[in-house]
Design a protein that fits this description.
- The chain has 491 residues and is α+β, with helices and mostly antiparallel strands.
- The chain folds into two domains: 140 residues, Beta Barrel (OB fold (Dihydrolipoamide Acetyltransferase, E2P)); 276 residues, BirA Bifunctional Protein, domain 2 (2-Layer Sandwich), CATH 3.30.930.10.
- It has 16 helices and 18 strands.
- Helix 11 crosses helix 13.
């Protein structure tokens, strides 16, 4: 009821302003400054120095607060760079403009111009000689003393969240900075940034359930990509030996504090390298970002100190299970014994489950949440790594790693499988998994195999979850905090 009354009052005000011929949405002003440029240039000066500055500044932004004193007032104006105070006096701006000012509302977009000075309390202020309304706000902002704190409302109405919560704006500036640092890091190492299709005829490049669509003109099913991997590796076949892409992937899976069906990933491929080279490169990238953001390799994440100081821990899947549990190592060599052990943990594993998948189920249950400090987990079973090169030491496992920090996977990499015959066998193995009911198993991709038959150099590739990376470096507990418009259920 209160909001309806406010809307009614504002509509009436809009009607009277229009009746007076006032343009509520003009587009004819020139802005020559931001709040930040004014504060940076003059915030350190005293009034004696400011009086010598004759420069006139014009800026625009959202009206966030008013303190009125009859024929004068102080305003707080917020633009993309921050807030600044403006001072308005009736005998300075004239009767007409002052009358307009008296009918402005919190949330309106306004223009002010004038010289700068400091108040008795030392606050840098624009002494306004011109004020204009640029866009009338019909709806009121959230109540100023309480702000916008409801999590669901913040996610559903991110525009309001950005207006009233400066720390949220800062977070997304930091996200942009992290992505730019990542891009610069890759380009300095001679990687070419590319774009590959986001609609695929075959859902491939990862073990995940895709979103499906239909193209009317082509008369065919297409899938939103679950990963760009198979296209990026085609580019390596084509001679683009160092490529990367930062773009969206889509997986028709659950939503949680670190899963969103639409997410950002950087995936890259480096010819004539191994997964071990990528571990070194990943350490370099993360420490580079940390030094830029924190000027340190140590920082707090959700009350825990994360230390990126090198070297990072490196353990195989089996080594990590042995380290973080009381399991008999021999149990990881026998499928039946491993299945029985998994059942004692309450895991739902079938009697015909492969040893590799049972080992991974045990790992996820006992180890993942204990990997707080940066840890590379290596030597994943072949059954869960259909695109990875087999280890020369034990062909049941692959030359692959996943990076864990604070119990979460942030990166996945491996030495690429470039033997087309072996790749075909792996796809056939995955098809059998699909027939057995695994909807995330990889499909056959004949065009990719054909590309491999032209010869792909020995290559290593990696995917890094950008959203989870940003979560880490912004101390954000949920992936929804670092995505501007996360997926939500309908109200």
């Amino acid at each position: 009821m209160e909001e309806n009354e406010l809307l009614k009052n504002r509509r009436e005000k809009i009607g009277s302003l229009k009746a007076e011929g006032i343009d509520l949405y003009p587009n004819d002003v020139t802005v020559n400054a931001t709040t930040e440029t004014i504060l940076d240039r003059f915030g350190h000066l005293d009034n004696d120095a400011l009086e010598k500055i004759e420069e006139r500044f014009s800026l625009a932004g959202r009206l966030m607060a008013v303190r009125s004193f009859g024929k004068a007032a102080f305003l707080n104006i917020q633009d993309r760079k921050g807030k600044i105070q403006a001072y308005i006096k009736k005998n300075k701006i004239g009767e007409n403009q002052f009358s307009l000012f008296k009918r402005l509302d919190i949330g309106d977009i306004i223009f002010v111009a004038g010289r700068v000075f400091k108040t008795k309390t030392g606050e840098l202020t624009v002494e306004t000689d011109e004020i204009r309304l640029l866009a009338k706000a019909l709806r009121p902002l959230p109540e100023k003393w309480h702000g916008l704190t409801d999590i669901e409302t913040r996610y559903r109405q991110r525009h309001l969240d950005l207006i009233v919560n400066p720390e949220v704006r800062e977070l997304f500036h930091k996200r942009s900075r992290i992505i730019q640092l990542t891009r610069d890091f890759m380009q300095k190492r001679d990687f070419l940034e590319v774009e590959t299709p986001m609609m695929h005829p075959v859902a491939g490049g990862a073990m995940a359930k895709p979103f499906k669509t239909y193209h009317n003109t082509l008369g065919m099913d297409l899938y939103l990509r679950i990963a760009p991997e198979l296209y990026l590796k085609r580019l390596v076949v084509g001679g683009l030996e160092r490529v990367f892409e930062i773009n969206r992937n889509f997986r028709n899976e659950g939503i949680s504090t670190f899963h969103n069906p639409e997410f950002t990933m950087m995936e890259f491929y480096l010819a004539y390298a191994t997964y071990q080279d990528l571990m070194d490169m990943t350490e370099e990238l993360f420490t580079c970002i940390s030094q830029d953001i924190f000027d340190s390799l140590k920082f707090q994440y959700q009350g825990t100190e994360i230390d990126l100081t090198l070297p990072w821990q490196r353990l195989s899947v089996k080594e990590s299970i042995i380290k973080y549990s009381d399991i008999d190592p021999e149990s990881l060599e026998d499928r039946k014994i491993a299945i029985e052990y998994a059942k004692t943990l309450g895991l739902d594993v079938g009697k015909n489950e492969s040893l590799g998948k049972v080992i991974m189920a045990i790992f996820e249950e006992l180890v993942e949440d204990k990997l707080i400090q940066p840890t590379f987990i290596t030597s994943y079973p072949v059954e869960v790594s259909p695109l990875s090169r087999k280890s020369v030491n034990d062909d049941r496992f692959t030359d692959r790693f996943e990076l864990y920090i604070y119990g979460r996977e942030i990166a996945n990499a491996f030495s690429e499988l470039n033997d087309p015959e072996d790749q075909r066998k792996r796809f056939i193995m995955q098809l059998k998994e699909r027939e057995a009911g695994d909807q995330e198993a990889h499909e056959m991709d004949e065009n990719y195999i054909r590309a491999l038959e032209y010869g792909m150099p020995p290559t290593a590739g990696e995917g890094i979850g950008i959203d989870r990376l940003v979560m880490l470096f912004t101390n954000s507990p949920s992936i929804r905090d670092v995505i501007l418009f996360p997926q939500m259920r309908k109200k």
